[in-house]
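Hi all, a correction to my earlier message: I attached the wrong file for Gnk2-homologous domain-containing protein. Here's the right sequence:
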Amino acid sequence: MAHSSSTLYFLISLSVLIRTYPSLALFCNNTIGNFTSSSPYAKNRNAVLSSLASNVAAHDGFYDTSTGENPNTIYAIAFCRGDSSADTCESCVSSAVRDLVMKCPYQKAVFSWGNGDPPCFIRYSDTPIYGILQTSPKYLMVNHGNRITMDQHQFDEVWRNLMERLVNKASDGTSRLNPDLLPNDCESCLREAIHDYYRCCHGWQGGYVYKPSCNFRWELHKSFESSPSPFSSSPPPSSLSHPATPPAPRENIAEGTAFKLMEKIISSYVHVLIWAICALHGQKYENLNEVF
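and the right structure:
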């Protein structure tokens, strides 16, 4: 990599974009009621969970289902990060299922944000969840390794610009296939997640926010596989492909600031990772590579 500039990577993925934080991101909902081991709901849950891992691996890393009659219907969604292989996806979901059954044995609604590397996401409830925006509960984590040491004002300016562009790309209704959330709901969820991080963890070099309908993470190091997902049936759009040669410098104040800031970072990457159920399905992720 050239030392005169740094590369900013953007990733928009249908899958959960986190590392391995198994038990830290498991939520057992105790507010909507429980079920007993001999109830119809228990039977339906067991039926769904017993085949969830194989089903999500067989359906390109994304699977939603429901089974049973009211009031014992269970609705479930599971998916894997865009750079997962079918084997790692199935293994992750299988492990996550064992974890949540053990730790949330009788709750009717559960969220599991990641249990593997690459990670995966599982959610089930006794009410419909597909296409419905839900931003709570939330789970936040900050990278306590280091605080931002460069000019904070300059860094914040670049950071906010990156977040704005990424949210707009993730919630663009014209580029989505088989959408779950409406574009406005997608944008609302992502903006709320970014705001939650900024309010909680401003000044640290990375962190993440988990929500039922979206997830936000950014780091100063690479934390995803750059190769296309084995689930992907087609390459990302040509408009988002890596440029053959770096563009000429542009006399824009904001981009000039970004260039100076990236020179200070030199060999570091700023990696911004966002997944949302409202993001692309089928096209597992998009990469946008910009050189300042």
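Sorry for the mix-up. The two ends are 13 Å apart (CA to CA).
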